[in-house]
Structures are given as structure tokens and as C-alpha cells.
């Protein structure tokens, strides 16, 4: 393998593998550059009806979309949800039922109106809001339903630890014939002296062209194959030479005998 011709072939393989590696890097760059993602529109406030319909699941691409809603609070339906985190600090949300205006059928949206680390304050704010009603024009981010869970058998059966409009619906009043949005809204403006809910803009992800990514992997395989081919050819030639030497040595021994 250290003979001049095999060293020359190794150098040729290095050149070929380098070309393949460059092509693979080029394809890898195109896998990202040729599939740009359109700039997110999540920060553009849209009417909720333009984003999702009542009863529909929220598309993953629309999670965090800012929307505007106009409605009336339903008195008695402000409920505390626990296990809510604001910038890593555990606390509580106060949530309410907002009955939207200008809808063909009665339609409601679950709204988280603020956060506090103090359970007593959360209960006090919910009680104060339940004692009144009124209209509200809100903006906030639309978030997917977390889904209900089975309550802890050793805990309070009325304790809510998930932000689930389906679970809240079972506690709301006047729900006969009601349409409900599956996602919920985190209000940009807190109520009742609560703190604003930390709800940052969703991350923008870079698009990937999977076909170009596959081509990049192919070029890497080709580069590896170039070295393997050199190795097999050199090894086969070496084994052949060893075999010929063994045959020659065996022939000399037989003549000597």
C-alpha cells in the first residue's frame, strides 16, 4: 500500500473526496437557503375569526398569533387555574368566559386575564370580577388548548391545573347551545391588579429543503466510498502479491526436497 502507484491513487482519492465534500457542503447550504420561511405574522393583530373558527383546533403555525376580540364577560365564570408559570415562577391565572359579540350563535372564548404568585390574591380577584360584568375589547395571544387531565384523587376535585377550555366549559354558566373556541387567549392587559402573563412571540424556525439535505448526505457517502474503493483495490493487490509469494516459496521448497 506504500508503493508509488497506491500513494498516487490515494492522492487522487483525496482530491475526489474533497470535491464530493465541497458538493455536499454546497447542497447543505442550499437545503436551508432555498427554503426560506415567510416572515411570521404573529405580531400582526387579527380578528379571531380570521385565524380559527369555534370548535376547530389551532394550527401549530398559528400558535401565539395576536388576535383582537370584542365581547362581554359572563358574571360568575372567573375561575382560578393553578400551576401557571411566569418567567419560571409558579403561580396562578385568573380566567374568564368572554361571550363574543357579532356572532351568528352564542360563542365564547376562554381568556386568561392575569397572573399572580399568591393564591389568596388570585381568589380575591376572581371573586371581585365575578361580582360584576361588562364589555371588553381585548388583544392577546391565541394558545392551543392544553387538554383536561384526571384530577388528583387526594387533592381538591375542583382544582384546575391545566388551561383547558373544555374543562372550564363544565364550570361555566349559560352554556346551552354555546359554541366555544378550542384555543384560549392570554390577555395583553391584566385585570384586577394582576400581573401581565408572560407570553413571548413564537420562535421563527428556519425552513429546510429535505431534498437538498438528502443530496448532501449522498455526497458524504460518495466521499467515503472513494476511500473504501482505494482500500479494497490496494488490499486486493497486496493479498494477491502475498499469495503469489507463498506459491513461489512453496515451489522452491518442493524443488529443494
UniProtKB/TrEMBL annotation:
Cellular localisation: Cell membrane
Q: Which organism is it from?
A: Microbacterium rhizosphaerae
Keyword set, alphabetical order: Cell membrane, Membrane
Q: Which PROSITE patterns match?
A: SURF1 (PS50895)
Q: What domain of life does the UniProt record list for this protein's source?
A: Bacteria
Q: Does the keyword Methyltransferase apply?
A: no
Write down what this protein is called: SURF1-like protein
Q: Which InterPro entries match?
A: Surf1/Shy1 (IPR002994)
Name the major location: membrane
Similarity remark: Belongs to the SURF1 family.
Membrane topology category: Multi-pass membrane protein
